[in-house]
Write a structure and sequence with these properties.
Distance between the termini: 34 Å
Low-confidence stretches: none
Number of helices: 6
Number of strands: 0
CATH architecture: Orthogonal Bundle
Length: 112
């Protein structure tokens, strides 16, 4: 079994890492100390596909595999644990059940 990331996965990791290094990590202490949420960074995550990591492209998602979805959350966790938890919950507890079990009407209304 090969545990090495593919070139595409490494490139995705670099892109996400660079983003969180600039947009999330500098605000992590403030987020932790005040309890405020970094909405500015989250708004920028949408166009990157980070708010629909495994949502099919037909519904506006990034349609990433499980490895890339994990990479995104891991990089977010490196930058800010609370932001990583929120985005992970959104993707896996919010979007996941809608993708798997939601009606077409619900998917059209709520998926990215």
């Amino acid at each position: 079994m090969n545990f090495e990331l593919t070139a595409e996965q490494r490139e995705f990791q670099r892109i996400v890492h660079d983003f969180v290094d600039k947009e999330v990590r500098p605000h992590a202490r403030h987020v932790d100390e005040t309890g405020e949420f970094n909405w500015a960074a989250v708004r920028k995550m949408g166009p990157m596909g980070m708010l629909g990591l495994q949502v099919p492209e037909a519904y506006g998602g990034a349609a990433l595999d499980a490895i890339c979805a994990t990479i995104a959350i891991e990089e977010l966790g490196w930058a800010c644990g609370s932001t990583a938890l929120a985005i992970s919950a959104h993707n896996h507890l919010g979007m996941g059940p809608l993708v798997e079990f939601g009606s077409d009407a619900l998917k059209a209304q709520w998926l990215p």
